[in-house]
Amino acid sequence: MEEIWKTIVMMMAQAPQEAFWAAEGLLCVFLVLLALIRWGRRRKTRRMEGVDQIQAPVDMEPAAGPVDKAWESPESLSGSRKEETTGFSPPAVAAMDAAAPAGAVQIPAQMATKGFLGRLKSGLSKTRNTISGGLDRIFSGSRKLDQAALEEVEELLITADVGVQATMGLIQKVSQRSGEIQGLGDLKAVLKDEILASIQAVSPSVADQNKNLKPRIIMIVGVNGVGKTTTIGKLAARFVQEGKRVLIVAADTFRAAAIEQLTIWAERAGTEIVKHKQNADPAAVAYDGVEAAVARGMDVVLIDTAGRLHTKVNLMEELKKIKRTIAKKIPEAPHEILLVLDATTGQNALTQAKMFHESLDITGIALTKLDGTAKGGIVIAICSALNLPLSYIGVGEQTEDLQNFDPQNFVNALFEEV
Prior knowledge:
- The protein is α/β, with parallel strands linked by helices and 418 residues long.
- It has a single domain, classed as P-loop containing nucleotide triphosphate hydrolases (Rossmann fold).
- The chain has 18 helices and 9 strands.
- It has a 9-stranded mixed sheet with strand order 1-4-3-5-2-6-7-8-9, with helices on both faces.
- Strand 6 (336-342), helix 16 and strand 7 (364-368) form a beta-alpha-beta unit.
- Helix 14 (282-296) runs parallel beside helix 15 (313-329).
- The N and C termini lie far apart (87 Å).
């Protein structure tokens, strides 16, 4: 062995320097390849373990998580352009509910028993802590309403995303009624009155005027991520509970998940759905949906659209095209254009509303995720700045957590504990 080692050392001593460099290079390449192979195997193992842990039946309750992010269907979207329709009956939905996994999220008992007003107060707890709790801090002790205190109240309202314009109007009203304010309770009462007046001054919603139309065509718009698909599913379930025949039209053909999610919501709500293959012309899908609704005697048609980025003119033009195409079948349609906004985006939601309204003449707003923000004052900003009716508000993930907007209940929830 010693002789072999001496021979190797001698050969290395006699070898040219270039040979050493070549050997070192080959060794480095070999070590890198070995490391990549081992890393790839570990990654594959972790991925497979993750799939085993999160895999769940497609029939699980929507309450287990936001549908816009969680649901994916294995259904293939390939095929001809010819429309596909699916109908589901309430018994089928009941069977699916019975098959839901035991671990699905359920409505807490206290939430189920206290009604929507209680859920609204719970959902607005963060905003209430900002406004009502902030007033408690400003007027702790025996502090009086002076100019310095008014400035702090103004800052508080802006922090809650009431908006500069609406805040200035409220502060002006409070200042004019300062003679009525002797303490914190009086100040809250005056603010409640003025906030309620500003919200109720908005033009009435056209939804009540259209409730007896057949078919009632509702076009739903909004940017990606605001909860548009989930809102459509909840609205469909509500209309079905009212005894209406509902048709969902999947005109967002640019995002495959949108078609799949709407299909699942249609199944759960017991409605029919009209859809084309992915990347089909959205206006053509909308036209076929309205045509099918007329032929089948549907009561309500909910038309989904792509989550258009409101700053892109060409994308807004596509929504205008859908609107024009629907009117070719029913001249006065769409009867309503509902804009879905995310309350957690604050003043950005107000910017979106302005852009969409300029392009499409929005008839109503659905404000989602009020339970997840301390900036629920955006409700006041929207009503004051745009004179657009707030049709629906969402304060949770359950179907019943999307309700008609009641100004009195909203104002009460801003100042009163559960």
